[in-house]
């Protein structure tokens, strides 16, 4: 143990550790790993998006104060655990929620507040671009946000010098490089997966739209340049080092890997970057990533086509809403427990309620809920209203109530997955699950297995999440051998020998989930009526 501790201290002092930082929906997390990819220290900062002037957003102050706080907490943990000051690392990677819209003028000023993936005001643009490109353009994609701003006649559009994602913005400010990992870039604009670049035919079609409005730019000039996993993406500048660590302890010149989106880091953190593998990330939002063997036969509005960090084609099913409403109900039960003078440890409350759900009827006994805090493109909702409904004949019990909310957290996702598995006959050998839904062992995993009707695995390391995933991509940048692919690096050097728990679907659960989904799809009309009748 002492020998291992001394080795870790030597890695810290010699600057051989690797740092990954990810901006999630509700938390910014920093993870420091050793040369063997084992987490050594971490720090986190909680934050929340704001609904301001009709948009979900985070302020620039939110971004930088949050980044500095999580970094400082991680550095303090290094000092507390190992007695050393973190002055340098071997490489750094930044990741964040994909999609959204950050538009800057020629002086580097953000011209409109950051519009996150959660906004669903781009329906007209997404529909028109999908028709123009013959390629699904979801509402949350950056190009949909840009075109909607053009359709709206927003004054800032003609002054655009650069648009990027949150990860791309942080990376740019810290390195001076206007680049983006191909996985994150694939959520801005469609990718030519053969050439590993933006699709030039579609870019030309969009440029004609810009010309019609007499705009002074072309897409190629305002989009970030694409980088593949393992490619150089700049170094931490002096200004960047002070932005990240205002104490002045961290040195400049550290190599940075391409900034990636949370989908790419989720694939990396679960070793799901090879063909016929997949993963599901379930937290505030939920998305599945299935690495395809070939192109889909049709264009589906429910399915995004994005890429792995190395540029392989991925079918992504993304639902805006997952655990937020479920968490709110758990919080309500905590309040009840406090009123009764009972223990209110949230981990125990989640465990008790989640395991109680497994006692419920496989079809939830006729209960129904929609955890829509925001709009849901898969089911055609521009806005959301959290909703729980039952009939007088429904079997209203705590077990069925909790099971209903677990099922509905995956309801929109399942609609998209059924297209992949049933209509397109996509094959997947294994699906890895990660995210908050799976913290209570065995419950979320079992529910997801029923929804997908396939084996679901959970790794212990997957609990580290996207911050660990981007740290792995940073490690790949500086530790890979000549010609070594990301798939081989992860398979042989990171995940070899790692324990994971695999669970097969229970036939009764699968049958019950299918029955629940029939009610779920029919009841969408109730959710739409709630949106119409209950204005924000």
From TrEMBL:
GO biological process terms, semicolon-separated: carbohydrate metabolic process
Carbohydrate kinase FGGY N-terminal domain sequence ranges: 18-243
Keywords: Kinase, Transferase
A GO term, aspect molecular function: kinase activity
Record carries keyword RNA-binding: no
InterPro entries noted in UniProt: ATPase_NBD, FGGY_C, FGGY_Carb_Kinase, FGGY_N
Residue ranges of every copy of the Carbohydrate kinase FGGY C-terminal domain listed in the record: 279-476
Sequence similarity: Belongs to the FGGY kinase family.
UniProt name for this protein: FGGY-family carbohydrate kinase
Species, as recorded: Qiania dongpingensis
Lineage, opening ranks: Bacteria, Bacillati, Bacillota, Clostridia, Lachnospirales
